[in-house]
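Researcher: Let's continue the batch. This sequence belongs to Competence protein ComEC, and it's 625 residues. Same format as the previous ones, please.
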Amino acid sequence: MRFADFPFLRYLPFLIAGIIVGNFSTLSTATYLLIGILLIWLCYLWGVGKRPPVSLGYTSGLGYSLIFLLGFWVSGMSVKNPSFSFPQLDSFQAYLAEVQRFDLDKPNSKENLVEVVAVRDSLDWRPAAGKILVYHKSDRRLQPGDLIWFQKSPEEIPGPTFPDEFDYKGFLAKKGIFYRKFIGNEFVVMGSSENRNPKFALVQLRENLARLIESKIHHKESRQIALALLIGQKESLDKEIRNAYAETGTMHILAVSGLHVGIIYAIFLFPLRAFKERRKIPVGYLVFVISTIWIYAAMTGFSPSVVRASVMFSLIIAGQMRKRRPSIWNILAFSAMLMLIVDPDVLFEVGFQLSYLAVGGIAGLQPLILRWWLPSHRAAEYFWQLAAVSIAAQLVTFPLSLYYFHLFPTYFLVANLIVVPLAFLIMSVGVPFLFLGKIPAVGDFLGLVLDRMIVFQIKVNSMIQSLPFGKLDRLTITFSGMVVVWAFLLVWGNWELGNRRKMIFSFFLILGVWLGDRLIREIRRPSYQIWFFSSEKGALIDLQLGRHDFTWNQDFPPDQISFALDPNRLLNQRSAQPNSLIGIRENDSVWFPALGFRFYPDEKLIQMERDYSPKIQIFRSTEGD
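Model: Same format as before. Here are the structure tokens for Competence protein ComEC:
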């Protein structure tokens, strides 16, 4: 089939390009949008009136330009500006805000999200808008729709202090959250708008389902897995459980995703086989299946992967109604475009990227992998097909996983061959449990079965995790390295369909760019580097001398090292546990005689005392934590 047979696949890159440009552009969206549309229409009118007429490629280019402008526009419209909500934080005396969700328990407080509806200044109350993360210690648990009054002015969420640290501010900014405040017990619940506001219906539904799961499933670990697996509530997962599933390559089981929607689709697909044989598919039943899929998507909070899968399966079922089989590539691209137009910020979410990469890999590479072996037994064929799906998804997503998470699960294939079928069985019981769990006898029985099945899955996953050499961690890859891997997979996937000479040329061109990037990085890498990190709690010095790494720590908290400093060590290919650097305390300074510099803790300064200039990078935090 030709690339021209996949129109939405052709449109998608231009929409993405427009969103990226719009996201990083400081231009006025409306002004430049109007100018762009006017220029395109002028070019179109010129082309129509030209004799001889312009080529088809000319008009196609104008059409792609319009799609690019669409991406630029939706990106500009989604930009969230904190100054619009709070022009002068210090001038307000009190705030009236509406609670948006249920409390989330933290080690020393409870977290919630509120949306300001009014503020009081020196004159009177006036309308306002903006979201604030609040932390309180009240015995009363806040619920969606509660109206609370408090006086403390919120503070802006700070950005990352140290290089390559997780940008929590940017993460929340994509959700329109720019402020936080600890209000303790100093707030008053003025009333509730829950009954008058239908937007809290889904939040309340998820909370009711969570309470149902907590009441019917008694093992703590099983309860946490059930909350994540069935309704996408991962906040209660212990760190040990997260690590166990991440290290076996089965974390996607706990993140409600397209896999779960596919399992629901498969559950309802079995009764259709008899109708398929008669070539009669009941439209009413298909509408019921689509409705069930979207109800489940709503119950799980409309995560990107679930919405993607719901759109895809809905289109597939719609095709079955019309006795058509739409192209998986058109469906995949159309669902992505739909999501990006509704919420362009989803493009920058890891879940969105991994979800579409995985499905694209499965669609493009699984048929090629299946050719490696033709099993003679039906059971072997089933497991080989499952293995091919896992290998295809892993091949396409592992570069992005290394880029973000720096971890590769060695036994991902073994784990997925066992855990995914178990997840199918758990979902086969869990979905009926969500709908029928409140029926006393039925709910108790399904809850008991679900509890035992999850306990068994946890044990199997733990056994795989305990195998020797179960993970490769502290791996990293550059953006150009990711592109090279994907280019190779693209050439392999299209080897029998496209122009092989052009594909090989393109691949080696990309490979050359990657090698050039690597060479430039090595040339620019200093042989002697010093990183100086300081906060109110302490200071830390990292030193890289050739291939040797050293560190000196003065009361810098270990937990802060893991999340704030270790990302920088990893990207600069430094050891997670450098050798200790010996310093000699002299009055108000620490002298490092072997390396020729002196550190002044009070001033937090470094003074070189030798005639050479290493590359020194200094990063300071003014916060205590």
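Researcher: Any comment?
Model: The CA atoms of residues 147 and 190 lie 5 Å apart.
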